[in-house]
Amino acid sequence: MPLPSLQQFHRFRPRLIDALAGYSRATFLADLGAGVTVGIVALPLAMAFAIASGVKPEQGLFTAVIAGFLISALGGSQVQIGGPAGAFIVIVYGIVQRYGLANLLIATSIAGVLLLLLGWLKLGVLVRYIPVSIVIGFTNGIAVLIGLSQLKDLLGLQVDRMPADFFSQLATIGRHLDSINPVALGIGLACLAVVVLWPKAWALPPVMPPGWIGRLRVTAARLPGTVVALGGATLATWALQLPVETIGSRFGGIPQSLPAFELPEFSWETARLLVIPSVTIALLGAIESLLCARVADNIAPEHARHDPNQELMAQGVANIVAPFFGGIPATGTIARTVTNVRAGAATPVAGIVHALTLLAIMLVAAPLALNVPLAALSGILLFVAWNMGEWREFARLKHFLLPYRVVLVGTFVLTVVFDLTVAVEVGLLLACGFFIWRMSQLFRVQHHPEHSRFGDLPPGVAVFELFGSLFFGAVGKIESLPQQVPEGTRAVVLEMHRLISIDTSGIDALQQLFRTLKRRDIALVLANVNEQPLGLIQRSGFADEIGQAQIVPTVADLWREPEEAAQALRSASPAPSAASAAPPDR
């Protein structure tokens, strides 16, 4: 067997290389401003995602710095920003609870290898084949789970450790409602209100007021609501010594340096247990990153469209490297990518600046994180969860057919009640099942009478026209065709001009039809066969079995040429023996 050529694999060429050609000072200033803006926005989100995932806040920052830098430097998008994402919260939390932190790092690296292979083998396009109903279902389910996971810190409940599954979380929260901290609840709701209302309150008018008032409005409008909420809550907690849990009280603060390179403990026994978690991380990372890149393409059409395979390879490298520095899974992030585009980013340099900005903030201002109240981060994450879900799709379900509704709602419920892996597996099975059913409904067999568009048929000729695709889900309609053949028929003609494709199950069904008709001394003729069905009929040997003369260009050819008519309408040979009539082994 010849070895595959290198052309069959994707060439590793980051978009940054092309972007730096002709790079100008004006472009750099645009990337610098966008990168600093996104870095500030990413700061509270990175910590919040890490804490919600059951790990330390600095691990979210490490991921945003290292993985964010690698995804921008090596990726296939002009403007995508990578880092820890809300979609991973439920997955990461479950893995940490079940397997421990060290095994999460191993699973993340294995997922990185899978992502790298997906891109290298040019399989990035396959992610687009996942039905939108499944994507909406699990996205909304994850949003619900994120919101539920934040109730503990939002309410200030005295719970040592939250379970990972939905019903246990509800029961735990219900048992501890008597320990609500009103101060924590007030901080969380206030932060949520600031994040929601800040952009609306400081929206720039068409005509700016003159003087310092106008400059104040511009400055306020440029400040992200998440940073304002987090900064205000931290200042209030420190100044008033509010009795709430903070990053300092729970985690002891954030280090002012990146961690050293460290290999997690690895064993093949453990690795076997991590296959499903690793595949889940890789699948979700691929879906999120490519969806994010497509959003970026739509809102920034002036930039070159992303390369999905290069993007997956960059995501793979980032997820391989980040765990060795304590990082958690990373992918493309829609909120930060949209912020990056709106801030004027032009090239992947903006993403690199975003990572360096986070690093600078961490090195300089880490001690300030001691007083960050966890309730404030919960309020911010509730806003993220709400924006993450596509809730209007539930209201629009009445406009769609039953298969779409079942797949979307089923995936949503399974994500919430069980986990993402089960939801996607069952969702794909349902989607495939409904697709097969719909395709089988499109295939039909129509019996034409003696006086039809094919002209006046000779006596003893029955014409059946095939429509659609004859595949394994539709062969039942061919198997029942002999019962539709009128008495006295000498030849059955299958008009196949509108049969667009056929598979091996369809060929098998035609073979069985031929043998059934042959036992009744009825000839079978195939007319007007398209390229794909004809190619498979020839390769499978069915053309030789039925006879090449039985495959004609059109139905009319049967009686325009006397020899062909005589050949098609000849009496069939005696019925074959049971051994020869038996279908071949498959």
Describe the structure.
- With 586 residues, the protein is of the alpha/beta class.
- It has three domains: 24-388, no CATH class; 392-441, no CATH class; 443-581, STAS domain (Transcription Regulator spoIIAA).
- The protein contains 28 helices and nine strands.
- The protein has helices at 15-19, 25-52, 57-74, 89-99, 101-120, 132-149, 151-155, 166-175, 182-201, 211-222, 225-240, 247-251, 268-273, 275-299, 308-321, 334-342, 349-365, 374-388, 392-395, 402-417, 420-442, 476-479, 504-519, 531-540, 542-546, 557-560, 562-568, 578-581, and strands at residues 82-83, 331-332, 444-448, 451-452, 455-456, 461-470, 491-502, 523-527, 551-552.
- The strands form three sheets. It has a five-stranded mixed β-sheet with strand order 3-6-7-8-9.
- β7 (491-502), α23 (504-519) and β8 form a beta-alpha-beta unit.
- It is elongated, with a radius of gyration of 32 Å.
- It starts with 14 loop residues before the first helix and ends in a 5-residue tail after the last helix.
- The relative contact order is 0.15.
